[in-house]
Amino acid sequence: MLEKFIRTVKRHNMFQKGDGIVVGVSGGPDSIALLHLFWRIREEYDLKLYAVHLNHQFRGEEADEDADYVRRFCENIGVKAFIFSKNVSLYSKEKGITFEEAGREIRYGLFDEVMKKMNANKIAVAQNMDDQAETVLMRLMRGTGLEGLSAIDYVRDEKIIRPILDIRRKEIEDYCNEYNLKPRIDKTNLEAVYTRNRIRLELIPYIEKYFNKNIKETLSRTTNIIREDKDFLNIAAKKAYHQVVIKNNSDIRINKKAFEEKHPAIQRRILREAINQSMGELKDVQHKHIEKLLDFIKYGSVGREIHLPKGIYAVLDYDAMMIKKGKRKIERDEFEYNINIGETLNIKEDKAFLKAVVIDRKDIKNISKGQDKKYFDFDKIKSHLIVRNRRNGDRFTPFGMKGSKKLKDFFIDEKISREERDKIPLVCDGEEIIWVIGHRMSENYKVEKETKNVLVIIYKKYS
Amino acid sequence: MLEKFIRTVKRHNMFQKGDGIVVGVSGGPDSIALLHLFWRIREEYDLKLYAVHLNHQFRGEEADEDADYVRRFCENIGVKAFIFSKNVSLYSKEKGITFEEAGREIRYGLFDEVMKKMNANKIAVAQNMDDQAETVLMRLMRGTGLEGLSAIDYVRDEKIIRPILDIRRKEIEDYCNEYNLKPRIDKTNLEAVYTRNRIRLELIPYIEKYFNKNIKETLSRTTNIIREDKDFLNIAAKKAYHQVVIKNNSDIRINKKAFEEKHPAIQRRILREAINQSMGELKDVQHKHIEKLLDFIKYGSVGREIHLPKGIYAVLDYDAMMIKKGKRKIERDEFEYNINIGETLNIKEDKAFLKAVVIDRKDIKNISKGQDKKYFDFDKIKSHLIVRNRRNGDRFTPFGMKGSKKLKDFFIDEKISREERDKIPLVCDGEEIIWVIGHRMSENYKVEKETKNVLVIIYKKYS
């Protein structure tokens, strides 16, 4: 395994002799093996190693034991360890982001802090080949482009390195046994645990059995080819961007004629970068937004506007499309999010987390009841799940009723004030409302005798 | 559905007013709906329609009934039908290609023939959105690059069009019911039926249930984005090719310095195209061949050679790599094929077809016995399945024996002549021989009491 590690490190130029390397160590097999591998080559490559561990304060004693284990492990091999303890849960609530996002933000912040303090220059993290394969499948199933399919990068920003990305989880576990490292059981990979576990424990074994015994290697190889294709496209797009776009403070001006001469693959990337420049991030930008903009710049009429998330909007001029940041007054604050089964969604507008899972009917009794939880017949879902606030023309079939009524009339019957109405989140199956959160679920989705799969939606206010 | 059809047709510029269109019609729901849709718009767009049906002579009466149905259907709506009948099975044996390849070759030959005869200019075929999604998943699981992930093209060579590629199979079936078209049950899609059926009946429903209800639309969208990325890369590669490569008869000369200045994504495409130019096709060229060449041109020593399939080889000069077609004498004709579960493989060197399927232990009694069939414990397979002839150093554990022996000694014990030895195909699990075809299977892979999944390998000489 040491050979594989060195091969990956060399192929991707991960560090130079004499470098200082900050290693993120959760205490699980991956990060412990990573640290141990670095430790074995530290003299040959004259490396200065620093371990960073974050106690998430999430699983009480267990988390403390993880921290202790990392401290002792590092002491034993003589590597300086920085152990931090942060209330990730609190931080996530304060910033209105999910627990996973909060954990990542804090961790990388600490890595940077230690890197600067110790005058190091690289941050090593411990994703493996299984993580890579799972990520590709997850992204593919959710919908993605080249960006997503190229999955986890070996090197990012010439700073973050992933030296065990070509090594399988099984090999890492064997390595830990061989060297008697006794890692902690890895529970810190909290990101989309549900989806990832299904991919890991069901989907990949199924594919291995019936389609390709080496699916992990195959996917890893595919992402490596795709990553280079992506890289080439991004270089080309960057060059094109400066031929097409003029930035003036926060306003972005895209020259129509220059834009039209570019290839559609490049056009899409120019639009993404323009939004990125204006918005400061791309997190809430979806494929449909880019397609909308593409249509707009091609076929829209001069003077028209279209709206994008976070108050960004685009206006058409005679020879350009401008992307601006919204001083404009929006009539009503609309929000809409896709629900991915198994993931926690942060609905900032209502300061709440939403999570959807699917369970077998027979497991329903194992779940505690509560007002913040509703059950639906999953097989009645026809389209994709979203959560949004009301739109004009919404209709609803309240539980216990036959036939639908206007949502507005339902609100009136329920004596909900106008101000409140705009804030109430609605879970929908495509166009159809299945749950008016806090009020009523739909008759059309109730769990019945024949129900096999139950969709459980949990909704929790965090303030 | 007519609207969706027209939208796809317009978006991809599939035809012009006044065009003559040859429609491939198997008689199944997809092709019947496709023909019916064209028929409905024929006057508005001034189209001349011709239906082409091929009777594969494979399922006797049923195939004749399919042909009759297509003839009557076309008569009813007043579309000229060309019904052909060919012995596809015989053709496949004569040409040493699989039944599926033979069917495709003959069909497209006939489409071209009718197109020329009737002075038409387009060929319409009936793949749908489900086919698209299945193809992406199949390719992804087998390993592929952008080329494969972009899956089925809407338009190919400005001639072959696929106007129902955005429509789901279910919609097509509903359409056939609505218009009472009574299509034949589609059995003609013989390509990789086993793998495809598993994807269609198990994998996609599983993904729909646990990950994404709209996986088909998602995959279709992904392929559409990727197709444009691929297109851009191919345009760039084509341009680069002519800056780097000089062709002299069948010899291809790749300038090292010019090559090295290109991006790796482009370098790979230049190498593929160079092999294509030299070999005339890319069918047997695998990812590993391209990687080998890439390493060779970068790090190889002047004067060295490496071999590629079909007698193609590469030689290094001081300032160039040459790709040549082999007058050179090869010491022994080596062959090697990957075995994909569920597909028929043609082993030309031994004039035989090989097919591998996996079944449940309990279904073993439903399968007829025979010398050309062997059973293995599928769960004992550790790597990927290949079939090849012998290599130096091969070892083998014959059925009923403990411990391995040299394959050479096995051949001597079995009194197999030297000439014969090179021809005998060996099924291998990675490096390990599991079946010396025609002689003995391996002790290490036998079906035992605990065996759950049985790998059945069928091997049939066709001459």
UniProtKB/TrEMBL annotation, chains A, B:
Function: Ligates lysine onto the cytidine present at position 34 of the AUA codon-specific tRNA(Ile) that contains the anticodon CAU, in an ATP-dependent manner. Cytidine is converted to lysidine, thus changing the amino acid specificity of the tRNA from methionine to isoleucine.
Coiled coil: none
Domain observations: The N-terminal region contains the highly conserved SGGXDS motif, predicted to be a P-loop motif involved in ATP binding.
Organism expressing this protein natively: Crassaminicella indica
Family membership: Belongs to the tRNA(Ile)-lysidine synthase family.
Residues bound to ATP: S26, G27, G28, P29, D30, S31
Chain ranges passing through the membrane: none
Protein name from the UniProt record: tRNA(Ile)-lysidine synthase
GO molecular function: tRNA(Ile)-lysidine synthase activity
Keywords from the named record: ATP-binding, Cytoplasm, Ligase, Nucleotide-binding, tRNA processing
Matching NCBIfam families: lysidine_TilS_C, lysidine_TilS_N
EC assignment: 6.3.4.19
Reactions mediated catalytically: cytidine(34) in tRNA(Ile2) + L-lysine + ATP = lysidine(34) in tRNA(Ile2) + AMP + diphosphate + H(+)
InterPro entries referenced in this protein's UniProt entry, alphabetically: Lysidine-tRNA-synth_C (IPR012796), TilS/TtcA_N (IPR011063), tRNA_Ile_lys_synt (IPR012094), tRNA_Ile_lys_synt_N (IPR012795)
Superkingdom of the source species: Bacteria
Name of one Pfam family that matches: ATP_bind_3
